[in-house]
Amino acid sequence: MRADDVGAPGFGVYLHWPFCAAKCPYCDFNSHVRHQQIDQERYAEAFAREIATMRGRTGPRSVTSIFIGGGTPSLMKPETVGAVLDAVAANWTVPDGIEVTLEANPSSVEAERFRGYRAAGVNRVSLGVQALDDRDLRFLGRLHNVDEALHAIALARDIFPRLSFDLIYARPGQTPEAWEAELERAIGHAADHLSLYQLTIEEGTPFFALHAARKFEVPDPERAAELYALTQSVTSAHGLPAYEISNHARPGAESRHNLTYWRYGEYVGVGPGAHGRFVDDGTRVVTVAERRPESWLAMVEQAGHGITGGESLTREEEADEFLLMGLRLAEGIDLVRYEKLAGRPLSSRRLALLQEEGLIAPVGNSRLRATPQGMIVLDALVADLAR
What we know:
With about 375 residues, the protein is α/β, with parallel strands linked by helices. The protein is about 40% helix and about 20% strand. The chain has two domains: about 5-260, Aldolase class I (TIM Barrel), CATH 3.20.20; about 315-385, Orthogonal Bundle (Arc Repressor Mutant, subunit A), CATH 1.10.10.920.
């Protein structure tokens, strides 16, 4: 991470494509399987309309990153991606060379389509690999196997300037030795960025019911902490240190868009189920869109947007969110910015106590970060600091 870039929040645009070929049993994202053909041109027009509505709320801005997530955006035609990106550029300033990421699943990767995305303006791909073990890929409900994942990684490295891929660890029965070997193999294929997530059991997913019925077990907290520590040491040793709890990159290759979230920047969310957080008429607002794609589409065509919820944040809520997001980062938070948001500094007594316990550490004279021990109990740490 460049020294002059530390803390720069940015203004991002998130575009949510909600359709998937299959729903993974661990997934609680807003994703939907449709067996009939999707009218992509109609959806692209709806994205353009909602983007124009959001431009009316944000005013003129210079975009620092664009992220097309889902769902499975690699099911989109390159022409659809191009049309949506053109709509962003028609409403805000989009400087040349900014990060434009598209999420892709290995099972839907084709060289011709990848080249089409690159021509449309995508310069970074995030691949949902999730495991380099065929048995575990089947358990996770993925439609690809290891060979297909490695093929997709190789294609992406050839076609795009930047590449990231995801892996899920702390899977049932996974030993530290097995995870270390898998992680070493992944690093051998990675370009500059890896996202490494512990398997979590989310309410409302098929895994939640299966886990409750004791159909499988995940590692206990002690083993999960061991796997987390192992992840940090292996990635650091190979030049991809954690710059955020679950994200690892070579210096300078951090995800610009995700940094916008964690640095508590502003971002517009467009598409079914998308969330946004930006300043509107001097107040930071939250927007939440209708989740069901067909309902969102009808709302946009009728009213110009699919926003169904949201709120204006209080000063205290902003400060709490800033803490929760910023302390996920290795760079930590700017204490002066926290004081401006909260209208008060953090308690010096509480800071001293938490530092004595080894959970936080100062960074120079004006920043604060969570230590590796603090990262493991981050939610409790933030709650303690925010009191």
